[in-house]
Design brief:
The complex is a heterodimer of chains A (77) and B (211). Chain A has one domain. Helices cover 70% and strands 0% of the residues of chain A. Chain A is built from five helices and no strands. The relative contact order of chain A is 0.05. Chain B has 211 residues and is mainly alpha-helical. Chain B has eight helices and no strands. The longest helix of chain B is centred in the middle third of the chain and has 32 residues, at 69-100. The N and C termini of chain B lie far apart (40 Å). The chains are: A mainly alpha (77), B mainly alpha (211).
Chain lengths: 77, 211
């Protein structure tokens, strides 16, 4: 069984995963473990939703001033 | 025979590059775990080429195509050297501060992860330069002006969040740090980064640092 290719790949994968100790954040660990899968696969969904919400927040805080800030940013390249 | 080996090697690196670009946005954890092994470092070459191409483009957009070639060359060389220097400074800072807070990685482990984290940076800088050319600022506070500004902020935030995750994963897998130590490292690194950005600005190399 030890010479089986799939078995060797599985062992390598297990070594790879266990090379780092799992992340814990004290009492917030269960919450952390519920949130983190959204970052592991297709996080762009979360980035998309988060950036629209944050963008709306920025717009409501700054109002039309956002136009001036973007003009400055556009000169930043 | 040797030409075949070279072609096969170039193709391998190119395929790995495309695979990891795709992985950086779809499965960043899995991809960065692999990148932190530090294998096949030449796959980062296309990122370097894209960066040089971007700076060629931005130099032309900044100064105009009719500017004297000598002046364009000086300006191009300045930003390319500035970005290379910045890349090196960031790599060394991540390793030094990472080790200071108890990390166990080195430059070899964070080189590829940090190189791939330049993808959102490149995308932001390139899109911004394109938009400046197509819709040059300043604009008014009219409805179209505000809608454009809102969309630009949303786009920038999207890339900022992506960059943030890639930064976290560089330290997590490259320097083998946990969240708490990454926060401490960031408290040290960010003010240093702000100071570095100010120096780059004063030297007239970058208005926004290319990190």
């Amino acid at each position: 069984m030890n010479t089986d290719k799939s078995y060797q790949q599985l062992v390598t994968k297990m070594h790879e995963i266990s090379s780092l100790t799992p992340q814990t954040v004290g009492p917030l660990t269960p919450l952390y473990r519920r949130i983190i899968p959204y970052f592991k696969e297709d996080p762009w969904l979360l980035f998309g939703i988060g950036s629209v919400i944050a963008g709306l927040f920025v717009y409501f805080v700054l109002g039309p001033t956002i136009v001036h800030i973007v003009s400055i940013l556009q000169h930043g390249y | 025979m040797q030409a075949d080996t070279i072609i096969a090697s170039v193709l391998t690196q190119l395929i790995l590059f495309l695979k990891h670009v795709w992985g950086s946005i779809h499965t960043p954890y899995q991809t960065y775990r692999k990148l932190a092994k530090g294998e096949h470092v030449w796959q980062a070459l296309p990122i370097g080429v894209l960066t040089v191409l971007y700076f060629s483009w931005s130099t032309l957009v900044h100064h105009g195509i009719r500017t004297h070639p000598f002046f364009l060359t000086v300006s191009f060389t300045k930003v390319v050297l500035g970005s290379l220097g910045t890349f090196g400074v960031v790599l060394v800072s991540l390793v030094v501060v990472g080790r200071l807070v108890g990390g166990g990685g080195g430059v070899g482990r964070i080189f590829l992860p940090w190189s791939y984290s330049l993808l959102p940076t490149l995308l932001w800088f390139f899109t911004t330069s394109m938009l400046t050319l197509l819709l040059p600022p300043p604009r008014t506070t009219s409805i179209p002006g505000q809608v454009f500004s809102f969309l630009f902020v949303v786009f920038s935030l999207f890339l900022f969040f992506w960059k943030g995750v890639l930064y976290y994963l560089t330290l997590r897998f490259g320097m083998r740090l946990d969240l708490f130590r990454i926060v401490i490292a960031s408290v040290i690194l960010f003010p240093l980064g702000a100071l570095y950005a100010l120096i780059m600005y004063k030297l007239g190399i970058f208005r926004i640092p290319f990190v």
